[in-house]
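Q: Here's a chain of 187 amino acids. Please give me its 3D structure as C-alpha cells.
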Amino acid sequence: MASHRGWKICATVTGILFITILVVLVVLFLTVLKIKEPDIVARPVNLESYEVVVFPAIKFNVSVGILITVKNRNYGSFKYDNSTALISYRDKVIAVTPLKDGTIPSHKKYNITASMDILADKLLFDSNFLRDLRAGVLNFTSHTTVHGKGSLLKIFHKKATSKTDCNISIIVASQSVDSACTTSIKF
C-alpha cells in the first residue's frame, strides 16, 4: 500500500512538472520565439553611370543601383526565393534584373543589391520620352517583390512577401537621382 502511494505521488509530481514545462514552452513560442516579420528597407537608388547624347543620334544609357536591406529579427533563419526587380517608364517595363535567393541567419542584417541598365532603345519609341528629356526630369518607377519564409528550429515556418516600390527621378542637368521608396510586408 505504501508503494502504491509513492507511485501516485511520483506520477502526480511528474504530471504537474510536465504540464508546467509544457505551459512555459507554449508561452515562449507564442511570445519570445514567435516568428516575426523581417524589417525590410529599400534604400534610395543611386546613379552608377549616366550618358545622354542628343546629336548626331539620340543615345540614353543609365545604370542605377538598387539596395534592399533585410533585417531578420527572428531566432531562426529567413530564407528568400529568387526574385526580380523591374524599372518602368510610364507603365512600360524598360529594365529587369534578377535577385539571387539566399538565407539570412537569425538576428542578422543582409543587403540585396543589384545594378540595372536602362537602354535608350526601350525609350526612343515613347513619344513622352523626348518631351521629358527636354523638360530635364525623367521619372521612373521600380518594383521589387521578395518571397520568403521564416523558420524556427527548422520545424515552424511562416511565409512572407515583401513588395517595394520606388519613384525615381533622374535630373538631366545635374545628372543626379532623387528617389522615394515604400515597402509593404504580408505575412
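Q: Can you summarize the key feature?
A: The mean pLDDT is 81.
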